[in-house]
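Subgroup meeting minutes
Present: P.N., E.W., G.H.
Scribe: E.W.

1. P.N. recapped why we're keeping a running log of single-chain structure predictions: easier to compare across weeks, and new members can see raw inputs and outputs side by side.
2. G.H. added today's entry (184 aa).
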Amino acid sequence: MFDTTPYELKMNGALEHFEEELKKVRTGRAHPSMLDSVLVEAYGTRIPLNQAANVTAPEPQQLLVTPFDPGNITAITTAIRDDQSLGFNPSDDGRVVRVPVPALTEERRKALVKQTSEKVEDARIALRNIRQDALKDAKAKKQAKELSEDDEKRVAQEIDKLMADTQVKLDELFKAKEKDILTI
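Output recorded in log:
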């Protein structure tokens, strides 16, 4: 018998990865996860910002970074400023770092939608690869006489159904994010 569970788990993993990637795409509102990619030079090593400070969004257009150790405030400010993909210009008052999140222009919004659609395509490629692996395994088992031809066809149908369901979820996530990006 052929077990499709590992492939279902891989497809769900690909979907979860896509969701994580979507969180990194900026919308017009400030969100603490926007700074997840920032690495801070503290204690002689590079650590993620969330291990050196608390990040909150007190206002829709501003992030507030409160360092656990006030001695790291300059390093935090520099790390946020140096991350060119974010394009933020933080300022600190000696206790906290304020990061204004500029409003998105129409041109930037369209570029973000395009960037997000590229992430969708990457997720689809990952799903197709998982599907191919499953079908190869089923074919190999059929040739090894562990599966009958009917079982192989049933497995292919099951994998295709899984694939279709996952694609629908992928499209729903993309449409929701696109709406979020384009909403002013």
